[in-house]
Each structure stands twice: as structure tokens, then as C-alpha cells.
Amino acid sequence: MSGEMFDHGPEKGKALMDVLEGRMPWRRPAWFMRQAGRYLPEYRETRAKAGSFLDLCYDPELSAEVTFQPLRRFDLDAAILFADILLVPQALGAGLSFNAGEGPVLEPVRSMEDVLRLKPEGVADRLSSIYETVARISEGLPAHVALIGFCGAPWTVATYMVEGGGSPERLRTRMAAARGEEWFDRLVDIITEASIEYLARQVEAGADTVQVFDTWAGDLGDGLREKYVIRPFRRIVEGLGERGIDVPVIGFARGLGAAQEQFARESGVQCVGCSWPLPVDYMAEVLAPICPVQGNLDPVAVMAGDPYLREAVERIVRTIPRERHVFNLGHGFKPETPIENVERMVAWLREFDSADTT
Ligand code: CP3
Questions:
Q1: In which domain, by residue range, is 138 found?
Q2: Of 4, 86, 107, 190, which sits 20 to 30 A from 76 (CA to CA)?
Q3: Which ligand 1 atom sits closest to the C-alpha of 80?
């Protein structure tokens, strides 16, 4: 498998791990959220072969295959496990289906009775096919490519469980948080503990690092942010440590604005992912002195192409120092993204990155 992908040889090391562990990398590491997905025709083909998105997620051979696909096209520094953050609620017994054009549907959890019906015992065991996928990917990657495992953050996963799917405002979940409902706190704890074990197993199967996705972290104001974003992240980092797992954790807490600094200082993560509304200057001046930063290219820049794409890549690379930066988008690729724009983005990145340091 590795022969089909760019292999720079073991002597260069994993640039992503260098940045996450505080060393100067041989080049600026890059990977992209949703780098495997519908914008790639080969993904659509494999997904059709699998039958459904969930069948694809639970098939180690096919999900390893789609994980490799973007790496054959683009010269990247990391692979991200192909799976979904909603597999944990499914393994907890909350049901899950993806209906064409509708997004995810789960059985809503809205009371202590609903929470008590969940099955936290052995939850990580029910996700064993995912660890098999991780092991397969890990065996097939070139030496310089890091493997990223992941899960959803407790707040974001809880929003899908309480709402029963995606929701534009997530008001039921935000109300449960604002009222400090006991059942809701129990739910968050259950997701948190399940996530620790799930991530630990991914690392044991070969993941070099893990990213925790808190897509809806921006829902919460002062007071609630500490309770439902910062504290669960800290518990996950601490829980991994207790479990003997010592890999860097990337925290992607989307939409925090100026609270991103508090998140960087208090969440315990080793790297913070940022979305595009956060000024690149803020990433460089406020966050990078605290920990390495990841992001934050506007996914629409990759849809639109040059000149906005070139300018956006240049601004990021010239503003954030190489040893403190993981090049990425501020959120996942849109399915409409032209592949040639991704190629251009990677070419601009490599050009500006080398110009920056010579
Ligand atoms: O390449 C990668 O980034 C790894 C795989 C990955 C997927 N989802 C695959 C996927 C990862 C890391 C995720 C995370 C995820 N899943 C998040 C957090 C990040 C974010 O995007 O905010 C969330 C909120 C989910 C939940 C989810 N999964 C939704 C709401 C949807 C439907 C909307 C959509 O984009 O279709 C999914 C489906 C999903 N997850 C797809 C992929 C490639 C599309 C499935 C398909 O139709 O083939």
C-alpha cells in the first residue's frame, strides 16, 4: 500500500508528531478534516460498494481503503481514521441511522429513564471493528505519515443524542445544560468515560495521536463552557493518562472565539484546532505561545479557488511559525470541493512553507 503514496523515507520522521510534541518538523505538517469523503469519486465508489455509510464505517477493509484514498492523491502528513463520532452513541444503544439527504437520526435521550436505558458496560468492546481498521491503516501507511484516531467531544455527542439528530439551534440540549438537569450531567459523564476507553483502544491499535471534535462548543457561555467543554476535555486527557496512554490530544472546539485562549490553557490538550473566523494573527500571537495550533483555512476558499485560496494559504503560512502549526481547514471539506483546488492548496502550502524558512 505504501508504495502508492508519497514516501519521504523514515529519516524525515512524522512532521505532525514533531509539532505536537514540541520539535521542529522537517516541513509544516498538513492534513484536512473530511479528507476522505464525497468530493472524491473513489470514495463515492467504495461507499456504493459498502452499501451504506454505516456499513462502510464498520468494514475494516473498506474503511481503511477510504482512509488511504486522499493520501494517494495529495502529499499529506497524516491519515485520519475513517469512522464517525456517532458510533459511540450507537454502541451505547441510542440507535443510529443515516437517511439519504437527511443526516443522522438517533433515539432521543431526554430524561433519567432514557439515560438509564443506555448500556455503558462494554461499550468500547462493541466498537472492536474500528480498532481493526486502525490496525490495518497503521500497517499500510508510509513512515512519515501519522495516524489520527478520533471521537466526538461529550458536549457535541450529547447534542445529537438529546436532539435525536442534527438541529440548527440545539435548544433542548442547551436548556438541559442551563438548568443543570441531573440526567444530562449523567449523560455527559457516560459519553466521557466511553470516549476515554474508545480512544485508548484506538491508540493501542496503532493511532499516533487523537483528535476530539467539539463541533458545537460555541453553544455555551461563561460558566457552562467550563462545565460542559473544558471539564470533559480535561477528564478525557486525564483518563487517557490513567489508562497508560501517552499520546498528544488535539482539541477541536469550534466557535469559541476569544474563549479559545481559555480552552488552550485549561483543557489539557496538546494542540488546539481553530476555525476560520478566528484571526490568524490571534492564532500566532495569543494561542501559539501556549500550545501548537491547527487550522484554520476557510473550506469555502478551497471550493472557490484562487485568488482567495492562494491568499488565504499564504497568510496562514507566513503568520504562524512552522514548528507551532498544523496546516488544516477550519472545518471539513464540502462535498462540492473541486479536487484540483485541493491540489493547488497543497502546492501553495509547500511553496510558501519552504520560502518561509530558507
Ligand atoms: O475524513 C475524516 O475527517 C474522517 C472521518 C469523519 C467523518 N465524520 C466521516 C463522515 C470524521 C472525523 C467525522 C466527524 C463528525 N461526524 C463530526 C465532527 C466534525 C464535523 O464535521 O463537525 C460530526 C458532527 C459528525 C456527525 C455526522 N456524520 C453528520 C452530521 C453527518 C451528516 C452530514 C454530512 O456531512 O453528510 C455525518 C456523515 C459523514 N461522516 C460523512 C462522512 C464522510 C458523509 C457520509 C456520506 O454520505 O458518505
A1: 3-264
A2: 86
A3: 4
